[in-house]
Amino acid sequence: MTVDLLAISLSCGFFALVVAAVLLVRRSERxxxxxxGAPSAPSMPGPDGGTDPIAAYLDRMSGELALPAADVAExxxxxxxxxxxxxxxxxxxxxxxxxxxxxxxxxxxxxxxxGRQIRAAHxxxxxxxxxxxxxxxxxxxGFVLGYIGGGFVVVALALAVFAVTAGLAAVGLRLPDLLxxxxxxxxxxxxxxxxxxxxxxxxxxxAVRTSASLSHRxxxxxxxxxxxxxxxxxxWWALFGLSGPQSWPIVAAELCIPVAAVAGAFVxxxxxLPRAPRWAIVVGLIAFIAVPLLGFAxxxxxxxxxxxxxxxxxxxxxxxxxxxxPMAPAAWLPGDxxxxxxxxxxxxxxxxxxxxxxxxxxxxxGPALGNWRDLRFEAWHALPxxxxxxxxxxxxxxxxxxxxxxxxxxxxLQATFEFERLRDAGSWWVVLTALGPDGHRYRLDFxxxxxxxxxxxAWDWLTAPQ
Amino acid sequence: MEGRIKGQLLxxxxxLLVLTVLRDGELYGYEIAQRIRERSxxxxxxxxxxxxxxxxxxxxxxxxxxxxxxxxxxxxxxxYKITKTGLGMLKEHAQxxxxxxxxxxxxxxxxxx
Lengths: 466, 113
Description:
Largest sheet of chain A: 5 strands, antiparallel
Strand content of chain A: 5-15%
Structural class of chain B: alpha+beta
Oligomer: heterodimer
Number of helices of chain A: 12
Radius of gyration of chain A: 35 Å
Radius of gyration of chain B: 15 Å
Strand order of the largest sheet of chain B: 1-3-2
Helix content of chain B: 55-70%
Number of domains of chain A: 3
Shape of chain B: globular
């Protein structure tokens, strides 16, 4: 019940944050665009019908403003109206139009100086702080909204990839397994990272547009600050904060997050934010409903899954264990031989534990293997056991990718492998080997196999041993 | 114009003059300048170039509120209205000015004697 209440409260909080951020951004957009309250400056023909000196004055003044578009329009209109009144009054006093215009412009002073003073009046410290706070708030709401929208986009993308793959499979073509992803975790991580990248894009865009509006600056003027902040925050998060399965494609997708944040602050930032078109909402809803249905259909359709195909009789030779070393003669091994127990601990380390299992011998494993030297566990790349084959040693590799000495703990031989911190562990097979009485290396057991995905942050991946 | 205050003396008084004339009601920029001239009997003619930065500054500080409204003549005008913050600011500036002008009158009067 407590969890439910917490979940409901969090959901309501996120919803309120998004709604408030959207309202703030919409309000800001009115200032950045040409808002309804900002009339255009009245046109005033010059005295000789040629170049309008008033328009030229206003242009020079506007060039120094560096304010949002609606503010510039307001200032121009206000000063144009002032000049109209002033000229009219001067003409009433008896001045001709040309002299009246000159006098009215002279009273306002140099155009560039006036523009700078008005800009300084607008860009107060109070507004700068409001812009910073509003930008952070809008970024938060934009991130949540962007993640929801990004979710729809990646679902549509997944749907498209699924359709293409299914279409190619129907005509007998099979795409290469670029992700080497038997569990599907890599695909999920990439899609989530892409959704985060979209969220980062929206977040900085919202931040730039909102803070520009609240601080009375142009979006271009504040973009650098937000690009820097977004790049640092999202860069740190992408490198150190996102922990989970990692691979080169996943790391690349995660590093797209800060890139998207920086790009979101600059690319076409002067253009108004788009409102979601109706077709996008419809497509999103269809994707939202269609993907689970298609996934369900794929699961229940006959011929799908690992049960398909002809089951081939299993033979030990299919495992290619002799690639590691020949099996030790039974006479040199204690009792009925050695079996392995392997498991993955909570810390992610694979602890191999070899024990002597025998109904006849009561010898502890240490004295029983007294004739053997250099006992060690060898970790070899293995083929995945995914239904297409029995797995076994991957014969493309001529040597183990990691070797650990077998240490005696009580009656057990043990070694610890940090497979989850190795980039290329994937499917692995760990075998106990040793130098026999004849000086040759032999395999003492059938080993233990499993599949491990690298888990950690992008930084862990980038700094991990090969 | 005889008896007209020179620009240097006017510096720093624009805020007080603007807030004072707006205490009586909403006005737009040109009207504010005219009203100051009228109320001072032509003694104060604020520089129009400094009037608009002052108006926008006061608006940014929350002392004034601006809105576009239809006017009796010509296009829509940007009207300024004094806020509660502006009234407080006016009171403060007026007290400062009273102290300053009294001191100046005493000092200058003393010099005349």
